[in-house]
């Protein structure tokens, strides 16, 4: 087989095996949690814990893991703030 034919055959086989990919969008839109929404969620969680007699810290993070809201209840131990963030980050 001639080299040009072999190269053309290899290219044809590669094109047949690898499906064409759709072009990725240049801009990606993501839903974001508003500060008001994060505050409402944190206040609801704090109220639920208070109802059970627990003194806790509550942290709400955005999709990138950055803190949106952090609350530490009266009487909550100092370590609860860090644990709250770590739980929110991994959720």
Query: What radius of gyration results from the CA coordinates?
Result: 26 Å
Low-confidence regions? none
Number of DSSP helical runs = 3
Cα separation of the termini: 59 Å
Widest sheet: strand ordering: 1-2
**CATH architecture descriptor name of one domain:** 2-Layer Sandwich
Q: State the oligomer.
A: single chain
CATH topology of one domain: Beta-Lactamase
Gross morphology: elongated
SSE series: HHEEH
CATH class of one domain: Alpha Beta
> How would you name the CATH homologous superfamily of one domain?
Haem-degrading domain
Structural class: alpha+beta
Arithmetic mean of pLDDT: 86
Residues in helix, %: 40-55%
Helix-strand blueprint:
Blueprint: H1 3-17, H2 35-51, E1 57-61, E2 67-72, H3 79-90
Q: What does this 3D model show about the protein?
A:
The protein is of the alpha+beta class and 91 residues long. It has a domain at 32-91: Beta-Lactamase (2-Layer Sandwich), CATH 3.30.450.150. The chain is 48% helix and 12% strand. It has helices spanning 3-17, 35-51, 79-90, and strands at 57-61, 67-72. A two-stranded antiparallel sheet has the order 1-2.
Give a quick rundown of the structure:
This protein has helices at residues 3-17, 35-51, 79-90; strands at 57-61, 67-72. By secondary structure, it is an alpha+beta fold.
